[in-house]
Specification:
Layout: H1 2-30, H2 35-39, H3 45-55, H4 61-74, E1 76-78, H5 82-87, E2 93-95, E3 102-103, E4 108-109, H6 110-145, H7 150-164, H8 167-181, H9 197-230, H10 234-241, H11 246-284, H12 289-298, H13 302-330
Antiparallel strand pairs: 1-2, 3-4
Helix pairs in contact: 1-13, 6-7, 6-9, 6-11, 7-9, 8-9, 8-11, 9-11, 11-12, 11-13, 12-13
């Protein structure tokens, strides 16, 4: 297990490096004169050139990435040009190790901006993830156990309806009726978990349901199919023939086989979950990474866009490493591959 873990961690680190190179090249190589967006529409040619040097856009793309990678490891100072730093020492911005760049829109490091906004998006993603996995497995198993009956048809039918609606429609529907018209819950407002766990939980109810429903619907159908397929296996019939209770057969044997593919899929779907926070944060006016990424794209803030993309990519890669390790725990044959 230890050797398998080391292999997965090393491959994950290499994948992150390649991802940073590809993301950096795609955004910076495809952007035409990015210094124009940083300087503004009324900048003179001299000011544009100064901005270009300050942000390092005058250097070859390979050197820009090398500085970015070095800054991530040991830290970095902005402006990028050493002469400009010496001429204006009071305007120097230091970025600690782990540096993802300087946002010229906010004149702050990307790390500072992400530190402020990330708790909102992480809270929303975790709350939605818990709802989606729990609801998908519980309702999927229930539908499988009552195959062909009213409960089964009702669960599958509702799952299809939820799957058919887009996220923004579900969010607006919940916001208008549940929060505003019927006032079942208060209008969602983000409260840090450290300040009040109760207010955090109540503020996350509607946004988390909005983000989780579409994924939950798919997992209900998958769980139902996996459970029905597993229950026809020979070892399940053998367990029943030995006199094991139905609860023990389902809990120990059926669910373990069912969770193996679901764990893998949940790791892959995490990217979609993080991407879905953009729409959900816009609907419920949550000031998180998703909302900030929309503003960064509109303002052509390359450093901030690249930083957000790399952050999400890192989270997804890390989640998939964890999923692979869980997969190896659930199915020991994976370690031998």
């Amino acid at each position: 297990m230890f050797a398998y873990t080391i292999r997965r961690v090393i491959s994950g680190i290499l994948l992150m490096v390649v991802m940073s190179m590809v993301t950096f090249v795609l955004f910076y190589a495809s952007s035409d004169h990015p210094e124009r967006y940083a300087c503004g529409p009324k900048c003179t040619p001299a000011q544009l050139e100064t901005t270009r040097e300050a942000l390092g856009f005058n250097e070859p793309l390979a050197e820009q990435w090398a500085k970015f990678a070095k800054g991530f490891v040991v830290g970095r100072d902005f402006p990028d040009d050493e002469k400009l730093r010496e001429a204006n020492p009071e305007q120097v911005v230091h970025c600690a190790p782990g540096c993802l760049g300087l946002s010229y829109t906010y004149n702050k490091t990307v790390n500072e901006l992400l530190k402020d906004k990330l708790p909102v998006s992480i809270s929303l993603a975790i709350a939605a993830y818990i709802l989606w996995i729990t609801g998908g497995v519980v309702f999927g198993v229930t539908a499988a156990l009552f195959k062909g009956r009213f409960i089964d048809r009702a669960i599958v039918g509702l799952a299809l309806v939820a799957f058919a609606f887009p996220t923004f429609f579900i969010g607006l529907l919940l916001l208008k009726f549940v929060a505003i018209r019927w006032q079942i819950v208060k209008l969602p407002v983000y409260t840090p978990l450290t300040e009040s766990p109760w207010l955090w939980a109540t503020g996350m109810i509607l946004p988390a349901i909005t983000l989780a429903l579409v994924y939950m619907a798919g997992y209900i159908r998958m769980t139902r199919a996996f459970v029905l397929e597993t229950m026809t296996e020979d070892y399940i019939r053998t367990a029943r023939a030995k006199g094991l209770t139905k609860r023990r057969v389902i809990g120990k044997h059926t669910l373990r086989a069912t969770l193996t593919p679901l764990v893998t899929l949940s790791g892959l779907d995490l990217a979609g979950l993080l991407g879905g926070t953009i729409i959900t944060e816009q609907v419920f006016n949550f000031n998180g990474v998703g909302k900030m990424s929309v503003a960064a794209i509109q303002r052509h803030d390359l450093a901030l866009v690249v930083g957000i993309v790399l952050l999400i990519a890192t989270i997804v890669i890390t989640a998939n490493i964890i999923v692979d390790l869980l997969y190896a725990v659930i199915d020991p044959r994976v370690r031998l591959g």
